């Protein structure tokens, strides 16, 4: 799996790269290809948002792009596809509510039934326990990273997970991580939808107040615009009206509503 072209890297702006990988190679049940990892280049520092699936080394790519800048590595949240490359780096930042998850080995034993045998072999070499980065540091809402000529602000956006965050740059770009994208949307149980909707309301207000035109999700289409947030909010609000259409999705212990071809298919936790 360590082929040089495993990742697809594109320069979006002078200071911004996207590094893409397909998570469906790990298990076809995951359909949100590609995963978008973002690299920001300041005058003095670089920042990597998420480290990917851990099945091919990403560090050499990052080193080739950042020149002599020091690197900050940040997790948008702690779901497997965003953190399994953490152990390649000495230090990783994460929201304080999820630091405990990435401070210990991460269990991916649920991939043992993947039809991709090479993937199984890759994770099996580590007994399906992926080691963490040696040092875990935390951030909180409104913390800021000054990269030199470019600032990146943390926006805490709970709902997708307790410590999910978005990033707002000083160039008025919003990186929505897994808080908002087109595709399979993973939601908490219905009783907690209000938190997701509050987060979306917060981001819509932010975009309107700051006239933010560019949104960069961590999956599928990127960039997007504010209509992503508006459409997602409306679709989640409508779930109660179509709840009888739900079907069981055993792999995720969840309900599923919608089709893969829809703008949004919702995977809703049962627990």
Which characteristics define this entry?
271 residues, alpha+beta, Metallo-beta-lactamase, Chain A, five-stranded mixed β-sheet, 18 strands
How would you sum up this structure, described in words?
It is a single chain. With 271 residues, the chain is an alpha+beta fold. Helices cover 20% and strands 31% of the residues. The model has no long low-confidence stretch (mean pLDDT 95). Strand 1 and strand 2 form a beta hairpin. It has one domain: Metallo-beta-lactamase, Chain A. It is built from 6 helices and 18 strands. Strands 1-2-3-4-5 form a 5-stranded mixed β-sheet, with no helix packed on it. The chain has a 5-stranded mixed β-sheet with strand order 10-11-12-13-15, with no helix packed on it. Helix 5 packs antiparallel against helix 6. The radius of gyration is 18 Å and the shape is globular.
Number of domains: 1
Cα end-to-end separation: 35 Å
Strand order of the largest sheet: 1-2-3-4-5
Global morphology = globular
Q: Kindly name the structural category.
A: alpha+beta
CA gyration radius, whole angstroms: 18 Å
Report the CATH C-level class: Alpha Beta
The total beta strand count reads 18
Query: Can you name the CATH architecture?
Result: 4-Layer Sandwich
> What is the CATH H-level superfamily?
Ribonuclease Z/Hydroxyacylglutathione hydrolase-like
Largest sheet: 5 strands, mixed
Helix count, DSSP H or I runs of 4 or more residues? 6
Mean of the pLDDT scores? 95
Name the poorly predicted regions.
Answer: none
Helix content: 10-25%
Which fold name is given in CATH as the topology? Metallo-beta-lactamase, Chain A
- Element-level helix/strand string: EEEEHEHEHEHEEEEEEEHEHEEE
**Portion in strands:** 25-35%
């Amino acid at each position: 799996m360590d082929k040089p072209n495993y990742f697809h890297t594109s320069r979006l702006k002078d200071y911004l790269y996207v590094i893409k990988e397909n998570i469906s190679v790990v298990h076809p049940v995951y359909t949100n290809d590609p995963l978008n990892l973002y690299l920001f280049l300041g005058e003095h520092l670089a920042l990597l948002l998420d480290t990917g699936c851990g099945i091919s080394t990403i560090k050499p790519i990052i080193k080739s792009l950042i020149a002599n800048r020091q690197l900050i590595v940040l997790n948008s949240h702690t779901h497997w596809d965003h953190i399994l490359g953490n152990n390649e780096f000495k230090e990783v930042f994460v929201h304080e509510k999820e630091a405990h998850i990435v401070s210990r080995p991460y269990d991916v034993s649920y991939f043992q039934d993947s039809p991709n045998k090479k993937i199984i072999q890759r994770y099996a070499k580590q007994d399906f326990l992926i080691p963490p980065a040696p040092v875990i540091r935390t951030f909180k809402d409104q913390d800021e990273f000054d990269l030199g000529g470019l600032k990146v602000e943390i926006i805490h956006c709970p709902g997708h997970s307790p410590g999910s965050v978005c990033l707002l740059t000083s160039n008025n770009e919003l990186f929505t991580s897994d808080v908002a994208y087109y595709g399979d949307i993973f939601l908490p149980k219905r009783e907690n939808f209000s938190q997701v909707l509050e987060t979306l309301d917060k981001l819509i207000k932010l975009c309107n107040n700051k006239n933010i035109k560019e949104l960069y999700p961590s999956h599928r289409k990127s960039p997007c615009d504010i209509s992503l947030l508006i459409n997602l909010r409306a679709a989640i609000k409508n779930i109660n009206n179509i709840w009888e259409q739900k079907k069981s999705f055993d792999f995720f212990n969840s309900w599923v509503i919608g089709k893969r071809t829809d703008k949004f298919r919702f995977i809703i936790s049962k627990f």
